[in-house]
């Protein structure tokens, strides 16, 4: 039991450390090279994120925090999409595709939703295991902020506005 707690603490510290490194502006990491398979079967790559400020949200239909934050993600997308902002919701590999499709359709999600059936995208983005995990990517394709859990949306909006204003 003690070993499990120690391992859990180390994992949490690593995740927090990586998030803090990005969040505190001590560095910017390029968005990992990955291919997103969207619900309609089309594909989008990390290179496609360049030129827009993009929120990449790893989530699951079984995650209560993910479901609770989804209306705020929709509102954020609707508020900034006309200014060059995009959102990409990536469903975890353990989430049944039919559940994801049903959720996206019934909630009329206005942004792109991807299925990470193999777990390769989550692995590429820092071996994401906790949901929600969200990354904010600038126009240059660099991760400038990461969140584990629901973000502070007022702070997120201020950062989005700052990034949108940059050339």
Description:
The protein is of the alpha+beta class and 167 residues long. The chain has a single domain (28-165), classed as Glutaredoxin (3-Layer(aba) Sandwich). Helix content is 40%, strand content 23%. The chain is built from five helices and eight strands; from the N terminus they run αββββαβαβαββα. It has an eight-stranded mixed beta sheet. β7 (133-137) and β8 (142-148) form a beta hairpin. The termini are far apart. Residues 1-23 form the signal peptide. Residues 25-165 form the Thioredoxin domain. This is Peroxiredoxin.
Question: Which terms would index this structure?
Answer:
167 residues, Glutaredoxin, 5 helices, alpha+beta, eight-stranded mixed sheet, 8 strands
Task: Tell me the layout of helices and strands.
Blueprint: H1 2-23, E1 29-30, E2 35-38, E3 43-45, E4 53-59, H2 64-80, E5 85-91, H3 97-106, E6 112-115, H4 120-124, E7 133-137, E8 142-148, H5 153-165
Parallel strand pairs: 4-5, 5-6
Antiparallel strand pairs: 1-8, 2-3, 2-6, 4-7, 7-8
Protein name: Peroxiredoxin
Domain Thioredoxin: 25-165
InterPro entries: Redoxin, Thioredoxin-like_sf, Thioredoxin_domain, Thioredoxin_ResA/DsbE_sf
């Amino acid at each position: 039991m003690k070993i499990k707690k120690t391992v859990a603490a180390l994992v949490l510290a690593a995740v927090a450390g990586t998030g803090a490194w990005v969040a505190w502006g001590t560095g910017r990491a390029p968005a990992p090279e990955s291919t997103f398979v969207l619900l309609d079967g089309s594909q989008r790559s990390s290179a496609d994120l360049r030129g827009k400020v993009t929120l990449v949200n790893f989530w699951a239909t079984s995650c209560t925090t993910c479901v609770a934050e989804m209306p705020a993600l929709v509102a954020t997308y609707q508020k900034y999409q006309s200014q060059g902002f995009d959102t990409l919701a990536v469903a975890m590999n353990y989430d049944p595709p039919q559940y994801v499709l049903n959720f996206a359709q019934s909630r009329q999600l206005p942004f792109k939703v991807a299925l990470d059936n193999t777990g390769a995208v989550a692995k590429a983005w820092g071996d994401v295991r906790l949901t929600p995990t969200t990354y904010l990517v600038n126009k240059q394709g660099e991760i400038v902020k990461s969140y584990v859990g629901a973000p502070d949306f007022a702070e997120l909006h201020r950062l989005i506005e700052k990034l949108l204003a940059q050339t």
